[in-house]
Design goal:
disordered N terminus, alpha+beta, hydrolase, metalloprotease, about 25% helix, PmbA/TldD fold, single chain, 5-stranded mixed beta barrel, TldD/PmbA_sf, about 450 residues, globular
């Protein structure tokens, strides 16, 4: 297959070409003795521009291709991949996968997802919005964003602005006869700034990520936000060690939910490496809290009609009334656990954390600060001190000390610690200030208490 160039007009025909290639390779795998086979083929293209202090630093045009094949000889599995779609490379990939499978030990959980679970309806989720921006326009946009941020008094330097436009095509096909086509776009803008005073230098940033460029905030709004965040950190100081309420800003709160996902994902569970092992149907969060997977949201960051195995996705509760309603499983982990796939091979598709609190009222960010009262607002975490096995959580943090619902001063050089089990059970409120830039959609999250270790 010759080199392909993806454009707005050619996307459908390129998907058809990838699908034909996938189906042909599956037929050849079956002819080579495979009892089952599956193919994932992708084409990703993009433009990335970085500017700093009004000058171009980098311009990168990308065109990446991938082709992965998995074959099953009974319950012996072999996988191989290539970034070259030339017929000789595809044949070598097929030969490799078959050779691996013939020499692999049988695994009783190996095999395709159940044929009856394959997606059969393919609604348009409004994910395809190519951005018609050339290099010159991207440079001008990056400079405009940076100029907006640098215009603020007190901003002394810039780490640069970036403009990224990307689009991807993918096909998943298997020997059940399933062929799924997906196309989607992802675009991003970002800016990092530096401010300084007699107490030292501070750095912060802001970014926006969308499916359609028309949904971006304005260059000025992004520059202003990055500058405001950077300037707000000037004069940061430490705290004495204490226990207090902690409020995670929305962009940090989704990380907490990410730890929940890690603990209820099949790989952690069948390896018995999760602090939520055997917690299905048990209370793990407050009774007012609900978390739902919504795979079919238009323009959603994680929207998908089918998962990485072709299994149809559907709306489903993860946390219902504080109770862990289900795990997150692909077919392999489901078989290892004696359960059924939840359509989560490859991850979660749009997780929505419902705003609320024990008193039934949802609050915006200002309201969440009032709920916090006196405690720590966390806007940055550092380090990898989180154990999904034990639930122990200990990370470096920065943010702001809050008293009586008002920000008093910026904070740095502290560590926040607790156990995720207690953190989840101790959620006081989830804000309505939802961060839409991720497939995990949550507002700020207020925890009843953590240990803040400082001076």
């Amino acid at each position: 297959m010759s080199e392909v160039v993806v454009s707005r007009d050619s996307s459908t025909s390129e998907l058809d070409r990838l699908a034909e290639l996938a189906e042909d390779v599956i037929r050849r795998a079956r002819a080579a003795g495979a009892s089952q086979a599956e193919v994932a083929a992708t084409i990703d293209t993009g433009l990335s521009v970085n500017v700093r202090l009004g000058e171009v630093e980098t311009v990168e045009h990308t065109r990446d291709r991938g082709f992965g094949l998995t074959v099953y000889f009974g319950q012996r599995k072999g996988s191989a991949s290539t970034a070259d779609l030339h017929p000789d490379s595809i044949q070598a990939t097929l030969d490799q996968a078959c050779a691996i499978a013939r020499h692999t030990e049988a695994d009783s959980a190996a095999g395709l997802a159940d044929a009856a679970r394959m997606a059969s309806v393919f609604p348009d989720l409004d994910l395809w919005h190519p951005w018609d921006i050339d290099t010159t326009q991207a440079i001008e946009l990056g400079i405009a964003i940076e100029d907006a941020g640098r215009a603020h008094a007190g901003i002394s330097n810039s780490d640069g602005a970036s403009v990224q436009a990307g689009q991807g095509l993918s096909v998943y096909a298997n020997s059940h006869g399933f062929v799924g086509r997906e196309r989607g776009t992802r675009h991003a803008l970002s800016l990092a700034l530096i401010a300084g005073d007699e107490d030292g230098m501070q750095r912060d940033y802001w970014y926006d990520s969308v499916r359609a460029a028309e949904d971006f905030i304005s260059p000025k709004a992004l520059g202003d936000k990055a500058a405001e965040r950077t300037l707000a950190r000037l004069g940061a100081r430490g705290l004495s060690t204490r226990q207090c309420p902690v409020l995670f800003a929305p962009e940090l709160a989704r990380g907490l939910i990410g730890h929940l996902l890690g603990a209820v994902s099949g790989g952690s569970l069948y390896r018995r490496a999760s602090f939520l092992l055997d917690h299905l149907g048990q209370v793990v969060m407050p009774a007012w809290l609900n978390i739902d997977e919504r795979p079919h949201l238009p323009r959603g960051q994680g929207s998908a009609v089918f998962d990485a195995e072709g299994v149809a996705t559907r709306d489903s509760a993860l946390i219902e009334g504080g109770v862990l309603a289900r795990y997150m499983l692909g077919s392999y982990s489901a078989r290892k656990l004696g359960m059924e796939s939840t359509g989560n091979a490859g991850g979660v598709h749009n997780l929505v954390v419902a705003p609320g609190a024990g008193d039934g009222e949802a609050s915006d960010f200002a309201g969440m600060l009032r709920r916090l009262g006196t405690g720590l607002l966390v806007t940055e975490v550092m380090g990898q001190g989180v154990s999904i096995v034990t639930g122990d959580y200990s990370r470096g943090a920065a943010g702001f000390w809050v008293e009586h619902g008002r920000i008093v001063h910026p904070v740095e050089g502290v560590t926040i610690a607790a156990n995720l089990r207690d953190m989840f059970a101790g959620i006081v409120a989830v804000g309505s200030d939802v961060d839409p830039r991720s497939h995990v959609m949550t507002g700020s999250i207020l925890l009843q208490q953590m240990t803040v270790a400082g001076e």
